[in-house]
Protein 1
Amino acid sequence: MYQVKNIIKNYNDLKVLDDISIDFPKNKTTCILGPSGCGKTTLLNIISGIIKEYSGEIIGFEDDISFVFQEDRLIPWNNVSSNIEFVLKNKMNKEKIETTMERYLKLVNLEEYRYYYPKDLSGGMRQKISILRAFAYPSNLLIMDEPFKSLDINSKQVLIDFFKELRIMENRTCIIVTHDIEEALTLGDKIVILTEKPTRVKKIMELNGSQENRIKLREIIEKELMM
Ligand SMILES: Nc1ncnc2c1ncn2[C@@H]1O[C@H](COP(=O)(O)OP(=O)(O)OP(=O)(O)O)[C@@H](O)[C@H]1O
């Protein structure tokens, strides 16, 4: 189990996270939903070690983690192929990197772009590469901050289906921040709803995988987010 416990974070006078405790069960996907600006990215930055000033505890996150940030983190002077290779090279041999790269680029119709530099790709293309690179990196924990936000509907669907497929094969633990209730219902085993700032945990929902209650769950979440 990965855990954050009693996390409090202020930026000067702005109270952002106000005693946040969440358990992230292993081999499950936890989706974090909350109003804009409530501190979701701040929480991920605390988990990833980017933010060091906060009070509370983070437990279990010393594992190898792959991240997908809201904006892509591709290295501008490396082409697509080298960007992927750079991340995977400590984890797999050249042959495995090559087969992974071919399969993954094909999946999102980007095979022809493997020698392009990030500046010559669209924002959506760069985001697709970032997402696939994180999927390909064999970490125990995958953390994604609004990963599908800048993607067109088709690409989003392809990546969501692929994510579901990988999850069945790999049993990874995932934490996904999203604004999108449907996405949370599709991907989450657990949904954590946060309040407005100063932000607390408002509701935690464990989903049992059945689609029957989906409409009802959606209504409950919408209501929680509006209140
Ligand atoms: N470095 C910073 N210095 C001061 N205030 C900050 C800093 N980073 C974030 N904030 C403020 O903290 C609050 C939470 O920001 P954060 O980006 O974590 O929210 P979020 O829930 O991820 O937002 P969104 O859903 O819009 O992406 C916001 O009010 C933001 O203005």
Protein 2
Amino acid sequence: MSNPHDPAMLAKAETLVDALPYMQRYAGRTFVVKYGGHAMGDPELASDFAEDVVLLKAVGINPVVVHGGGPQIGAMLKKAGIESQFIDGLRVTDKATAEVAEMVLSGAINKEIVGWISKAGGKAMGISGKDGKMVTARKVQRTKKDPDSLIEKVVDLGFVGEPDSIDISVIETISAAGMIPVIAPIAPGADGETYNVNADTMAGAIAAALGAARLFLLTDVHGVLDKQGNLLTDLRPADIEKLQQDGTISGGMIPKLETCVHAVEAGCEAAVVLDGRVSHAMLLEIFTQEGAGTLIRTGQTSK
Ligand SMILES: Nc1ncnc2c1ncn2[C@@H]1O[C@H](COP(=O)(O)OP(=O)(O)O)[C@@H](O)[C@H]1O
Ligand SMILES: CC(=O)N[C@@H](CCC(=O)OP(=O)(O)O)C(=O)O
């Protein structure tokens, strides 16, 4: 039997007692977790991630996992001898690329994550936007200024989509059955074609449609950093606009934060950018006063 006076046991108990108000606060609420392709490389972190979502489910929160797999799609395209190009962080997707993206995302990665969750003691159901007609995608339109004529020209990204409509009943049915939905960012268009959707965009749209309590974007930095490299812990949409204008945020962080702003303005309570390389970062964010990463919320949401 365990010794209740053992300091390690006491420390654990105190942590659980501290976490109790947060568990009560979020019981019955939904958390959407975006798990990116870069974070999947380390098996130990993958198993920690799976344990975290299983624990959330066990304490009465409904986790919904949306996954990426950009590097894995890139590796498979390379094997197949197909070249890949990105515009504004989006992979230009022709028919052959869409087929590979679906095979890697809906097939290999989706089932791998379902497997990790099963191994951690939970039950997961792996689907893509196609299943149960959950998501319909519309084609993404991008324009670019021609450097010579300065005229805006339409850039064709091929089969790159963004969610147009989402039927949340599919997700709710899986969650209500005690399972964790694991969603691949692939969706059909109204034209019946298969569209490749950026995983952050898919997660943000699902979090907004579900009115999620939190959208977690697990990435490879501690959160949003200022120019000195300090973590910015709490941001509003207006702050993000300033950070973009003064060049503090760049590259992949721009579309990521745009997704967060869109999600919190469209029904998700708050979004968090946090480090997927840190073991159990999500639990630290949820169950401690200090949190971890960067919280993004509108003026109406309290911390
Ligand atoms: N101000 C900033 N704070 C943190 N990261 C930033 C910032 N500006 C740009 N970045 C970049 O954004 C990257 C995260 O975006 P991205 O590479 O698209 O992530 P993921 O592949 O996890 O979706 C970081 O690795 C970092 O290089
Ligand atoms: C249109 C588009 O760019 N789709 C992404 C989908 C995967 C993804 O977003 O994966 P990460 O989150 O791991 O980057 C792609 O083809 O790479």
